[in-house]
Structures are given as C-alpha cells and as structure tokens.
Design goal:
It is built from 16 helices and 26 strands. By secondary structure, the protein is α/β, with parallel strands linked by helices. Strands 1, 2, 10, 11, 12, 13, 14, 15, 16, 17, 18, 19, 20 and 21 form a 14-stranded mixed beta sheet that branches. Strands 4-3-5-6-7 form a 5-stranded parallel beta sheet, sandwiched between helices.
Length: 545
C-alpha cells in the first residue's frame, strides 16, 4: 500500500494513493463499498462538471451535507477543481448558512435535499449562483435506492427546477474529460472551517493544503505501533465538517485505509459496522463513549476488533476512561487540538502508557509555549499557564476578522503564536494536562459554542433586555447550556418555553439552551461589561450546596 511522498496538494496526495490502491475499499456507506478507483473517478467527474458550471480557482463552495459518500466526493472534487471547500454542519438553519455563505463569499453550495429549503431561503442575501443538491441515497446502487423509496426509509426533501439547481448524480455523468492541472498547493487555502468562540458569529479558519497534509498524516499515523495506517478501518461517526473527523478519520484516505461513514450517530449501526467490518479505530467525543457504555444492547455485539479508540473535542473524564478499560481491557487514547491548529497539538502515544489525565505529548509538527496570562512570559514546569502554539505552516489569521485575529495571534521573538485561551500544564516527561478554559465558550457534546452568539439571539427577542449564557458541568455531555434572561419592565407572561422556541428557530440544535432562568439584573463591570465568570461562580456555589 503506497502513500504519497512529500505531497503539497491534498487532491494529488489522495490521487497518488488511489492509483496505487485502486481496488481496495476506500469508503463504506450504508452497506455499500466504494473502491479508491471509484472514488477517484467520481471526484474527477464532479470536478469537471463544477468547472463547466463556472467554478474557478480559489472560489468558495459551501459543503452542507451529513457524513456520506456525497460529502467525500464533493470535498475532493472541489479541491480537484482548484477551489476552496467550506464545510458546515448539516444541522445549521438558514440563518447560519446565510451568514457563512456571505462571510466566505461562496459562489456554489452543495447541500442535501432536506436542507435545500434553508439554502433557498438564504440565497437572496448571499452570492451563491449554483446549488448542487444530493439525496442521501443518490450514489447507492439502483436496487438500494429503489428499496429505500419503496419502504419510505430515505429522507425526502423538495427542490426547485431552476437552471441554477443541479443534481449531484447528473454532475457525476457530465464531467469534463480533461481538467487543468491543480495549481493551489502548500500554503494556498484548501478549505475554510468555521468555529465558535467568544464572538457573536462563527469565525472562518483558512486551512492550507500543506498544513492539512502535515497535520492529517501525523495524526492518522499515531496508532502505527498498533497496526499499519494502510490497514486501518475507521468508524466515521465524527462529523467531517469538524477538524476531528477530518484529521483523525477522513485522512485515512491518504494512506490506503478504509472509512465507514455514518450519516448520524446510531449506536446499533456503529456496533454492527464494527462487527461486520472488523473495524480497528473509533473516533469520538466523551459523550459518544459514555453512550456506548450505557447502551443496553452493547453485549450483543462483538467489538473486539477495535484497537484504537481516540477521544477529542473535549477532556475525557477519568472515571469514563477507567470504565472503558474495565469493559474492553483497552484505553481510550486522548489528544488535544483546535480548528486553528488543524487538529492535534498533542496526542497520547500508542507505544507506551500515558498518565490517566494526560491529553498527550506535543506532536513533532507543533511547538508550544505555556505562558502567564498577563505577561506572556513562560511559566515554570508543572505550573499552569495559557497554551500558545506555533507551526511552520500555521493558520495566521481568521477569514475577514482582523479584530479577532489581533486578539488570538501574537508575535513573540519574531515568531507567530496562536493563543488557545486554554490553561494547561506540562510535566517533566512532556505530558500535557488540561486545567481550564479562559474564554467564554461552552463545550457541549464536543462542540465549542459561543456564549455571545446565544446571548445575541435571545436579546433579539422583543421582550428581552439582557441575557447571559453559560455552561453547567454535566458528565454526559460536557456542559449543558443555561441562559439567564432579564425581561423589559413592562413585559409579562413570557415563559422559558417561548424563549427556547425562539432559539430553535434561529440556532443550530446543539446551541439551544436547555434551561432558562429569569433575573431582575445581571452582574456587570464598572464599564458595563457582562461578568459571565461571576454567574458561573454563582452556579458552582449553588451546585455545591
């Protein structure tokens, strides 16, 4: 099984591996297998059609699909067409889609038929010119499509028939025979991933071809001590729009391995895929591992083929890791990363035991500093401080966000560093430990959610004058979202249910508050800044009583 040598373009790296492994299974999706040869052919055909439709070098394409063969084909095709992919979660509403499409100045969008209504609703406030629509069953064998429709198990969405709306199946049939050579490489942007943070709106993180390849190849090779990367079979339940799913899952396609894609998290489907495919790797967040351990049909399946279970997205509770060890006699390996660092900054090695609370050792492509929050001077070994990260091909700015860039990136001694806003410590053996977060973000089910984004939506309600959103620790999901709301003096009869319904119409499902508490006032600083830390402190003291 061959792997690329010093690649500097993602598609060329994939194509090199695909040609060397043409008959091997690259993707398993809804029970169907797609070889590397199939995947390469489909990606090139779609790329040709995209170019025919006017997609040019460096233009942005929003990928608004769930984990599927269509997602992988679209992403590869966009890169083959020398364009830039903008993957987003399929559970976004028209509000989020419209914002990201406009912010990235995207010209094309690839969406599922069930999301087409959101695209149509938002198009007038974007520069989207062409929409490619896919059904979840589009690239399955004809008999599976027929059975899906006959038994009504395929989600059905409506789409219009205007000239700007195209079907992905037709795109695969109408590709150009020859495509121009790719010219975007190394430090040229390959994709823009949007991440939450401390601001009202998601921030675009431009990931270059070179950075992605360095990070992805490094992370997919972490379990090399357990098995060769080319023999890896990964359960792809981690979302592909997220850096975790990309660098620890999708990247197996650069090595000749296999990824089994899950459109959504269904534990029985995951268990069945592990058993049938003899999967070696499972990628997930703490919530997934807890759900697995608590599933009442777990013992009906044989999961013994799993050798590498990796946790990212949030800190793994010690008790959860211990329960996993007791059940499967294997650890859950941990790592730490961010979208801005293209995933892994630290990974737990597989050739030795890591301390239970460690989030890993720094990977070779990254350099770190642990510094005092105020002075940015290095702290002593073992002392907590803010983690700064540098790499040769690092992200250097957010997309169209100069103020956020200035706050998150700092130059020290002539070198640029990304400020993670996470407090960590390091021991004498180089093991990193997560201590705390300094920013006002909420970690819910592995997602990083901006407090101010939730607050802004609540404050748009005509009855609300102020709002504060915080995370309440919860062992099952990391943190639950609680909002504190101050109503206008002359307003009566507003309920928490009404405000949650308001949020459901404007926020993705994972951003919606689970609790609403009404207050007469919220704590603020002398200059009028909302003091979320005080509210969090109040909740913590209340929980300890």
């Amino acid at each position: 099984m061959a792997s690329p040598v010093n690649p500097d373009n993602i598609f060329e790296a994939f194509a090199s591996t695909a040609r060397a492994n043409a008959d091997r299974t690259a993707v398993v999706y809804l029970g169907s297998r797609y070889t590397y040869g199939d995947l390469l052919k489909m990606a090139e055909a779609m790329a040709g059609s995209l170019v025919k439709q006017g997609l040019g070098q460096g233009m942005r394409v929003v990928v608004y699909l769930p984990n599927s063969i269509q997602w992988v084909v679209s992403w590869l095709a966009i890169l083959r067409a020398d364009a830039v992919a903008v993957p987003i979660t399929p559970i976004y509403t028209s509000y989020d889609f419209g914002y990201i499409a406009k912010d990235s100045d995207a010209s094309f969008a690839v969406c599922s038929d069930t999301n087409y209504g959101y695209v149509l609703e938002a198009m007038s406030r974007t520069n989207i010119k062409k929409v490619i629509v896919a059904r979840l069953s589009d690239l399955l064998p004809w008999w599976k499509r027929a059975m899906g429709w006959a038994f009504d198990v395929v989600p059905k969405g409506k789409m219009s028939k205007e000239s700007h709306v195209l079907r992905i199946r037709k795109m695969l049939k109408g590709g150009a025979r020859e495509l121009p050579s790719v010219s975007r490489r190394n430090l040229d942007t390959a994709e823009i991933l949007y991440t939450g943070g401390t601001t009202k709106f998601p921030k675009g993180v431009p990931i270059s071809h070179g950075l992605y390849l360095d990070s992805a190849l490094e992370q997919i090779k972490t379990p090399d001590f357990l098995f060769p990367a080319g023999e890896n079979i990964i359960i792809g339940s981690a979302p592909l729009f997220h850096i975790l799913g990309q660098t620890c899952g999708l990247s197996v396609l650069l090595m000749g391995g296999t990824i089994a894609l899950m459109p959504k998290v269904n534990l029985d489907a995951i268990f069945d895929a592990i058993e049938r495919l003899k999967a070696k790797s499972l990628i997930g967040v703490p919530t997934l591992y807890r759900m697995i351990l608590e599933h009442n049909r777990l013992d009906l399946y044989d999961l013994s083929s799993l050798r590498y279970c990796f946790n990212g997205g949030d800190v793994l509770p010690v008790e959860l890791n211990q329960r996993w060890r007791n059940k499967f006699n294997k650890p859950i390996y941990q790592g730490y990363g961010a979208t801005e660092t293209c995933g892994g900054v630290a990974m737990c090695p597989t050739d030795r035991e890591s301390p239970m609370k460690s989030i890993g050792k720094v990977v070779p492509s990254k350099q770190i500093k642990i510094v005092d929050l105020e002075t940015l001077e290095p702290v002593a070994e073992g002392r907590p401080g803010e983690l700064l990260v540098h790499s040769e091909k690092m992200v250097r700015s957010y997309w169209n966000k100069p103020e956020e860039t200035a706050a998150a990136f700092v130059e020290i001694d002539g070198r640029l560093w990304y400020r993670t806003a996470d407090i960590v410590s390091i021991d004498h053996e180089g093991n990193l430990y997560f201590v705390d977060r300094t920013v006002d973000t909420i970690k819910h089910k592995g997602y990083r959610i901006s407090s101010s984004e939730i607050e802004a939506v609540l404050q748009e309600h005509p009855a609300v004058t102020a709002a504060c959103a915080i995370g309440i620790p919860d062992p099952k999901v990391g943190e639950r979202i609680k909002a504190f709301v101050v109503l206008k003096e002359d307003v009566k009869g507003i309920t928490g249910y009404e405000l949650i319904k308001w949020c459901k119409e404007r926020l993705a499902a994972y951003k919606i508050p689970q609790y609403i508490e009404f207050r007469d006032m919220l704590p603020k600083s002398k200059v009028g800044k909302l003091l979320r830390r005080e509210v969090r402190g109040e909740e913590k003291r209340r929980a300890e009583v």
